[in-house]
């Protein structure tokens, strides 16, 4: 175990130097052309916000089911099958077929080639589950139909979230899917997440609808309240124009009223629709509705044909800017709820780094002093291995651009404390061997060989714990499992290559001495 | 070589451990654990005031006026830092935190929110579930590993030792109402790894000695093995504790709970690998035949 070939000695040295270089590149300005990677600091260390958003898909599902009913009616009409009593109970579409049509309807819905109830080859499932009950048909979203719907709505939502976050202009936001109805947003360096939260919390569904002349709510109209006070108005359900037709929006100052407004421009289709509606509706009040609340309801004085317009509504410059941003980035397919938020201010982050580094240095010094006190020359060897270990650990974290969190720093400190274990096991074993074996080289060799399985066993158990934490843990705790796990691997390297190399050099040089250890 | 008669105290310490475990279990069942916002849901705010005259009761009063449910206020590190926790979490209202800050500023002067954690009920129950799964999984994985590496008597000893450590550590957290959060789960998992590590080192030696001495009974043999590995046990515990103590004292308030759990775990882990794991081998009458039989299979 003590023999090292020249090649191996050189490889160990080169390996150690390279990783030390990687590790040091985090702290000093080194040549960026050669190596430009850095350890990322977690949100708990650099400050920032972590937001977990969940899509509320219920409105989307209801909307889709309503659309499906219309589609079903049209489809079966074309096939000259008459169905009646369409209704939507919760998430179930129900309709009735006549006795003689039952077979045909059933076939059209359940056929693999069905174009009204799509069949997904990859899932071996239809979009809808069909349950027949005498001449009643019940349609429910199948599990996979729902998965596809949710995925589509998540994809759309994540795109909108990204646009909104980008528009606010934070540095390097991290936006990720979580499962099929969640979005994780990490905003490093963001001190005050309130603005982003309020931007993400809004669906931003913009519609233009005429205010109804009738004062009573009736079929085709709905009662909506105003955004800034409790007034209510009856609004026609017919949508003149929606936010989809907007190509641009920005906050501007209306020179006449000296008021902040949001100016928008429409695409061609939108401009045409808007022109037509406003020319027939001169004199009527046009309600501008955002997420079910009326922002304002100006009276149409003349047809608006230019494809651009203004929204007024007691805006401050900030709220006009935000509304313009929301309109530019588009509407979310469904409302998003913030179900978890963690924000750390930058000064607390810095305090945590300082405390982490201080405790690392102190812990490290204590261990080093203890080892020298206990083992003298061999303590020095163990300490050199420990320092190499630290460089390797930080070097590897740098190569993978891992994220270092506060518990991650704790993991490094813990590694320092536990890393000496392997060397202690070896040294203690050597001490025992020296009692029966006078030749130090044989005794040292035996010490290394006999302690090997124990060291492996002991480290594998910790590695198992680290692995499980990595897969089950989240955020900062994950950072702990990474440093703990990588720390075990670098410990084994530093013990079996660095410390063993140094030990062998020392023992061979001092083999005549009476008591080595 | 040390020669301490650890085995004379097997029975006494087993009774002590049993008392500790039963006490812990009673507290865990009756009093339960003090879950933090990670597992209970709610809001946590770490705040710093500019005015040194602010005290806990002033801050509690201001928060109590805001209808936020059960409010708890604690000092956090130095004089001007406080941790406030309350049940209400309303992350859907983007102005929720801002409003609290405004109200607070008007009643006790300028405050800086250094950290805000807001966890919804769905997420907290998921986090709790995944924490429990993580700990159970790691116990199962350890069991599997040691079952492959050792004879079943050894596995039983090691697992009992781990349960002993985890239960007593959690028991202490229950007795002193210390907060259980995500980092405590990480600490418990590391304790599991450490305790296992410690036990495995002694067991490896026990097995080696079973092969070496054909005429020594297990009662004596465990004692020899403990003594042979004792200096390693002490040195490793000391270096690990030095590192942990450094985190506890200098690593900042956030890591206090984590390092405390680890310190307790290391102490009990070291103790249990001597006084739980080995007596189990004795009780199960492990002999030279145990490992010979296993090796024949």
Please describe what this structure looks like.
The complex is a heterodimer of chains A (517) and B (297). Chain A is α+β, with helices and mostly antiparallel strands and 517 residues long. Helix content of chain A is 51%, strand content 22%. Chain A has 13 helices and 21 strands. Chain A has a 6-stranded mixed beta sheet with strand order 13-12-18-17-11-14. Chain A has a 4-stranded antiparallel beta sheet with strand order 9-10-2-20. Chain A has a 4-stranded antiparallel beta sheet with strand order 3-4-8-7. In chain A, a hairpin with a 3-residue loop joins strand 9 and strand 10 (182-188). The radius of gyration of chain A is 35 Å and the shape is elongated. Chain B has 2 domains: 6-36 and 123-296, Multidrug efflux transporter AcrB transmembrane fold (Up-down Bundle); 42-119, Alpha-Beta Plaits (2-Layer Sandwich). Chain B has helices at 10-30, 37-40, 56-64, 96-108, 121-149, 152-175, 182-212, 218-228, 230-250, 256-275, 277-283, 288-296, and strands at residues 34-35, 42-49, 71-76, 78-86, 111-119, 179-180. In chain B, strands 3-4-2-5 form a 4-stranded antiparallel beta sheet. In chain B, a hairpin with a 1-residue loop joins strand 3 and strand 4 (78-86). The mean pLDDT of chain B is 90. Chains A and B meet through helix 6, strand 20, helix 9, helix 11 and helix 12 of A and strand 5, helix 5, helix 7, helix 9 and helix 10 of B. Strand 20 of chain A pairs antiparallel with strand 5 of chain B.
What layout of secondary structure does this protein have?
The complex is a heterodimer of chains A (517) and B (297).
Chain A: H1 6-24, E1 40-41, H2 43-46, E2 48-55, H3 58-78, E3 83-89, E4 92-97, H4 102-110, E5 119-120, E6 125-126, E7 128-133, E8 136-141, H5 143-168, E9 174-178, E10 182-188, H6 194-200, E11 206-210, E12 221-226, E13 232-236, E14 241-242, E15 246-254, E16 259-266, H7 268-280, E17 286-290, E18 293-296, E19 308-315, H8 317-329, E20 336-344, H9 346-375, H10 377-399, E21 403-404, H11 406-436, H12 440-472, H13 475-509
Parallel strand pairs in A: 1-21, 12-18
Antiparallel strand pairs in A: 2-10, 2-20, 3-4, 4-8, 5-6, 7-8, 9-10, 11-14, 11-17, 12-13, 15-16, 16-19, 17-18
Helix pairs in contact in A: 1-10, 9-10, 9-11, 10-11, 10-13, 11-12, 11-13, 12-13
Chain B: H1 10-30, E1 34-35, H2 37-40, E2 42-49, H3 56-64, E3 71-76, E4 78-86, H4 96-108, E5 111-119, H5 121-149, H6 152-175, E6 179-180, H7 182-212, H8 218-228, H9 230-250, H10 256-275, H11 277-283, H12 288-296
Parallel strand pairs in B: 1-6
Antiparallel strand pairs in B: 2-4, 2-5, 3-4
Helix pairs in contact in B: 1-6, 3-4, 5-6, 5-7, 6-7, 6-10, 6-11, 7-8, 7-10, 8-11, 9-10
